[in-house]
């Protein structure tokens, strides 16, 4: 068998490590291929520009928004709402999830209700959010909170429950109090998983942005997309959607890099 074939086979084995350069190249090549296909479809006129403008038109629209300052104004407003909604959810979900993961009584009391609410579509809660919080920023932040909290608290609970019980028993044998076991055993062991939960849930918060800015928003990336829909400005819709995805990607990258620095010991296990 040729050397090149053996190398390709080695890279395609289950859970096989690959060189960093190849990992990075794959992450660049696949999106580039999709953009090339998009460009070909638009250039060949296979789809009307009203339904799918070309990459160049979308880029021109993005440059226009950046030059006029619209993009930065909308982005700053949306980032503020994202951070406020996600941080609010996190500050409540962390202690509640940790308690549910450690005390069966609390889990039994809260888990059925939380599991029920998390299946409710966030869009259906918009009328209630307006009734409770008005139509200002508080309503947008509330929608982001509701879309994030109920998923997040159950994931934190699961992170805590995966800790080996033998570690907890060892702490009890050493005479640790419940607080000491929590601070010295459970939280350090659960921290990498909880960090991943925070990374995943802030990504979900980004996906709820357009829903949050659906009603009576005067600024924001989601509001710009909804306004563009009324006027069939497809290039604005596409650019806004892609830009939200780009900001979400940057957020994910930040959490991954920070997680590697905070929990370097986990990779060495």
Automatic annotation (TrEMBL):
Record CDD domains:
TM_PBP2
Residue ranges of every copy of the ABC transmembrane type-1 domain listed in the record = 75-255
- Single Gene Ontology BP annotation: alkanesulfonate transmembrane transport
> What main location does UniProt list?
membrane
Provide the topology term for how it sits in the membrane: Multi-pass membrane protein
| Tree of life domain | Bacteria
Q: Which PROSITE patterns match?
A: ABC_TM1
Where is the chain membrane-spanning?
Answer: 21-41, 79-105, 117-135, 141-160, 181-198, 204-221, 233-255
Q: Which Gene3D superfamilies match?
A: MetI-like
Q: Could you tell me the keywords of this UniProt record?
A: Cell membrane, Membrane, Transmembrane, Transmembrane helix, Transport
Q: Name one GO cellular component term.
A: plasma membrane
Q: Which family does it belong to?
A: Belongs to the binding-protein-dependent transport system permease family.
UniProt function note: Probably part of an ABC transporter complex. Probably responsible for the translocation of the substrate across the membrane.
Q: What is this protein called?
A: NitT/TauT family transport system permease protein
């Amino acid at each position: 068998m040729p050397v090149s074939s053996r190398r390709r086979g080695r890279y395609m084995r289950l859970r096989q490590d690959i060189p960093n350069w190849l990992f990075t190249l794959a992450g660049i090549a696949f999106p580039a291929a999709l953009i090339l296909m998009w460009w070909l479809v638009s250039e060949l006129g296979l789809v009307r520009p009203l339904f799918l403008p070309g990459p160049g038109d979308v880029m021109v629209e993005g440059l226009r928004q950046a030059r006029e300052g619209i993009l930065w104004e909308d982005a700053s407003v949306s980032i503020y709402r994202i951070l406020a909604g996600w941080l609010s959810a996190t500050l409540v979900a962390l202690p509640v999830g940790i308690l549910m993961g450690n005390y069966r009584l609390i889990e039994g009391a809260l888990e059925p209700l939380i599991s029920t609410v998390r299946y409710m579509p966030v869009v259906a809660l918009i009328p209630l959010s307006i009734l409770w919080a008005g139509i200002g920023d508080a309503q947008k932040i509330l929608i982001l909170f509701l879309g994030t909290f109920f998923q997040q608290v159950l994931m934190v609970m699961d992170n805590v429950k995966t800790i080996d019980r033998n570690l907890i028993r060892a702490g009890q044998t050493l005479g640790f109090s419940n607080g000491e076991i929590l601070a010295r055993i459970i939280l350090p062991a659960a921290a990498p998983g909880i960090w991943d939960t925070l990374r995943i849930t802030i990504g979900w918060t980004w996906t709820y942005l357009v829903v949050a800015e659906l009603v009576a928003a005067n600024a924001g990336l989601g509001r710009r997309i909804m306004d563009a829909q009324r006027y069939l400005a497809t290039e604005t819709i596409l650019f806004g959607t892609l830009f939200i995805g780009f900001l979400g990607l940057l957020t994910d990258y930040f959490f991954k890099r920070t997680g590697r620095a905070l929990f370097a010991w986990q990779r060495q296990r």
